[in-house]
Design brief:
Length: 316
């Protein structure tokens, strides 16, 4: 073994130098590159239907300006797929995210069966000819759909969240819903079991007035639920039902602000009526104060102009 090593010593050294040189001149443009959602699978479509999806490509901090290259891999559904971006999309520093959409147009004469397709997505330096060896990174969007002439309903709830709430206004619950079926559908009902921190009896709220969601889409719907809750913090167990089956259960902390008859409770009420719940009370007061100052200044200016004109008329 020692004799073999001695004879091939120069060869081993030469190989190590080559490997080290390649690693020295090879550039890795990013440590991570991914697409969300990572696949579009297990959904249904009718012949002649159109499906639209929003997708997001993300990477960590890139070391140089790059190009995102999209390529449809050979499949039966290539002609059905339309991206909202060109096949070569620039990604400039310091960008790390690109949002785009995919439209799937199912032909009217599509035969009912399962179809598969892939879109390959590569990330490479913008000036690849000048960067030497490149460690290209990429990902693949996997698509699988079943074309059927039957109606198929399938609703998935991705999340629940409450908008800022007060004593005198309905609870505003936002549900992010994905319709994986091939017809427009909606949840049958949403149930809320509400309890405060002192373990008082639970308050049960049910709503069935829920907006529908079109097939093949993800949508945030707003549900307004009347209540008689007082100021305080509550633990809410939310259940979403589709065809009387619970499809999502989630526990959320709900804060009810004071009534609108005093102080910041009044501000909360005004913000809700104006659709400005996302502003903090301080931001709202600041904006409102600036508006009042502007209106006051304009009023003073108009009064002065009026008095001046009256004085000129009197002198005449």
């Amino acid at each position: 073994m020692k004799d073999i090593l001695k004879k091939n010593k120069l060869t081993l050294i030469f190989l190590l130098i080559i490997i080290f040189g390649i690693s020295l001149f090879t550039k890795k443009i990013s440590a991570d590159f991914s697409i969300s959602p990572s696949s579009l699978t297990n959904f249904y479509a009718k012949p002649g239907s159109e499906l639209n999806y929003e997708l997001s490509l993300s990477t960590n901090k890139i070391t140089e300006n790059c190009l995102i290259i999209f390529q449809k891999e050979p499949s039966e559904i290539n002609d059905w797929l339309t991206l909202s971006v060109p096949d070569i999309l620039p990604l400039k520093k310091p960008e790390t995210t690109k949002i785009f959409s995919l439209r799937i147009n199912v032909p009217k004469d599509a035969f009912p069966k399962e179809y598969y397709g892939n879109i390959s997505i590569q990330l490479q330096p913008e000036n690849s000819t000048a960067t030497g060896n490149i460690l290209q990174i990429g990902t693949t969007l996997v698509i699988k759909l079943k074309v059927t002439t039957d109606d198929y309903e399938n609703i998935v709830i991705r999340s629940f969240k409450f908008l800022p709430s007060s004593e005198d206004f309905p609870l505003e619950l936002v549900a992010k819903i994905e319709n994986l079926g091939n017809i427009t559908s909606q949840l049958s009902r949403i149930e809320l079991a509400i309890q405060n921190s002192d373990n008082s009896p639970k308050v049960q709220l049910i709503t069935e007035n829920i907006p529908s969601v079109e097939q093949g889409t993800i949508k945030e719907i707003l549900v307004k639920i009347p209540h008689t809750l007082k100021e305080g913090e509550y633990f809410v167990n939310i259940k979403g039902f589709f065809k009387d089956l619970s499809v999502r259960e989630e526990k959320i902390l709900l804060t009810i602000s004071p009534n609108t008859n005093n102080g910041f409770g009044l501000i909360a009420g005004i913000k809700t009526k104006l659709g400005m719940e996302k502003f903090s009370d301080v931001e709202f007061i600041l904006v409102f104060s600036i508006l009042l100052i502007c209106l006051g200044t304009a009023g003073v200016y108009i009064v002065k102009k009026y008095r001046k004109s009256r004085k000129l008329i009197t002198n005449i």
